[in-house]
Specification:
The complex is a heterodimer. By secondary structure, chain A is α+β, with helices and mostly antiparallel strands. Helices cover about 55% and strands about 15% of the residues of chain A. Chain A folds into two domains: about 70 residues, no CATH class; about 210 residues, Orthogonal Bundle (MetI-like fold). In chain A, helix 1 packs across helix 3, helix 4 packs antiparallel against helix 7 and helix 5 packs antiparallel against helix 6. By secondary structure, chain B is an alpha/beta fold. Chain B has two domains: about 200 residues, Rossmann fold (3-Layer(aba) Sandwich), CATH 3.40.50.300; about 70 residues, no CATH class. Chain B contains 13 helices and twelve strands. Chain B has an eight-stranded mixed β-sheet with strand order 6-7-8-3-9-10-12-11, sandwiched between helices. The longest helix of chain B has 18 residues. The N and C termini of chain B lie far apart (about 65 Å). Classes of the chains: A alpha+beta, B alpha/beta. The interface between A and B is medium-sized, with 19 and 30 residues.
Chain lengths: ~350, ~375
Amino acid sequence: MRGRRAISGWLVVLVALHACVLFAGFFAPYDPTEQDRGRPYLPPMRLHFLDNRGHFHARPFAYALKLAEGSFDQYEEDTRRALPLKFMVRGANYRLLGLLPSRLHLFGAENERIYLLGSDAYGRDQLSRFLYGGRVSLFAGLLGAGVTVLLGLCVGAAAGYYGGWRDDLLMRLAELFLALPWLYLLFALRAFLPLAVGPLEAFFLIVAVLGAVGWARPARLVRGVVLSAKERDFVRAARGFGATDGYLLRRHILPATSSVLLTQAAILVPQFILAEMTLSFLGLGVPEPVPSWGNLLSSLQQYSVLVSYWWMYLPALIMLPFFLGYLGLGSELQERAEPYKIER
Amino acid sequence: MKQEPAESALVKTNQTGSSESSPFSKGAEDVNFGSLPIRFALFTPPSCFNMPCMASILEVRDLRVTYRSRGGPAFRALDGVSFSLESGEVLGVLGESGSGKSTLATSLLGLFCANALTVSGTVLFEGQDLLQAKPGELQKIRGNRISLIFQEPSVALHPTMRAGRQIRHVLAAHGTKGRRGFDQRTREVLEQLFFAEEAERIRRSHPHQLSGGQRQRVLIAQAIACGPSVIIADEPTASLDPTTQMEILGVFRALRKSLSLTMMFITHNPALLAGFADRILVLYAGRVIELGPAQGVLASPKHPYTRSLFQSIPPLASAPRQAGKKKLPAISGDSFSSSVPREGCPFEPRCPERMDICKSREPGLVNLSETHTVSCFRYEGQ
């Protein structure tokens, strides 16, 4: 039966993807800020097993790229210089999980840099930037979703459980927040933040505020669940046996909201990642040279890049599995919460 | 899933009865008890009732509760209910659906529905007005001094918590004995209600693994865990089959004896009260229309409503047939119309013995004897 497995397939996919981002230092071949000014907008190198004479090589290799005759930005493969892919190589210094200093990388090439996803305007490796950028973006997504869901839980539970004027007040407030144009709110917020705040800190502050603004929707959902849960017979019976409000909330009512909350969180994470991208695209996000997914895509603002270098779109394509993973997980959680409603 | 045979529980009640000075050994009473249609007069009232000078433990005065209703005047669920619960007695509360039985049960502990509009009156318990009590004070009384057993044992237990844990949490809400002490007490309480070997299994079962009767016993265990002095049972047997009903009733009788409980037993089935209740209070449209000793009310009901209610109980199949098939008398009309506020006696539209005066004003309570009161004009001036 669907949705009844012990471990969700989507969860496995997500954990694997997040591990890649978390251990970016190991999986990325280069430092994300290391520039190679001589090679801007290098197209992705293709991995080969057969060389140009048709010989098979067990170790995959790429050909080095050289500028095409009479061109200033068109590259072609230099078949005389093969760059065999080496695994577990020593390269740029990094700290694993920000703690363990290491130089070990999953792969790399000797003598020359290898660009599997191409390079950007400064000759920085797109793959490395994507993996490192995921840290910022995914963390922003999780942080924003976490703040939103937590606030929504508190407000929704308070409104639903205590009812009366508190309910009215909180729900009118929620409607106000739903009506807020959040983008302009962000502009105002960014302008309001003092310059003394570091750019990265400012960014996370913005995400946290973004999360704080978004509590209204989950709060309304939680309120509904709490309203129905508190009128359940066993909750009333427990109250009749002298259960305190705290006990009822903890044991009877909040557990009932868990499925709604998890589903909400799973749906919100990609939304906040997208919000980060929007911010960075507008120049309000993470400052260069720190990589983030929004920064990776912001080069597409230039028309020349948009039409000339197709590989600059690649990060967007690679983000898809992350988003799909979260949305899939969200719908699966929803299905689990109501196993009798959806029959296939 | 293993299902306990119903007999074992039945045996248990009988055993409890015989071992503990046998609350059921009053001869024919028990045997006839299960057969619902009754000659009420056959039953002797429990000896308890004859005990002189009982102090009232819970006193309800002029309790009024109204509910907000959509697009209509406020619904008067309880309309000036006054009575007192004497220490050690079983007060049977009889009424049809919508007569305010459950509202009465929950109001006594200050558990009002979200749509309760107004509440007035006093509920005196040990000199304290529960309707004026602070939430914290009420919380300390609920389940500790006064326990409320809800109807429908199938939904009154937390579905994902083991039975033993639910009992322990009641203890934890009112005591400071620590986990081990609570566990010990939980076992004790369960062993009062189940066989010792069964008790352990019940303790570790989830509600869905228990039968209806077992769940009801777990609820009773929750109710008596803290040793309350009053138990309010709101139709505790309504959703059980007749055999299990009798078992549960047996449990109540045994507990009443061994724990000297005061009980308010709410039901719509007069048969359950025969031989069990000391006094009976009949509710109609949120008003007390008759209150008196169980024997008196059951044997010779005075209010026309009570009378027609008892007449509409089908006779025993084994009773001698009276001249062919007879239509079972029913009370015409429905009780809903009586909830609309109007002048006069609430039962007047359905009353077979209505008089002119019934339309114009509401009857007061008339004392027929020292203990028996009825609210009907027929008895005024007698």
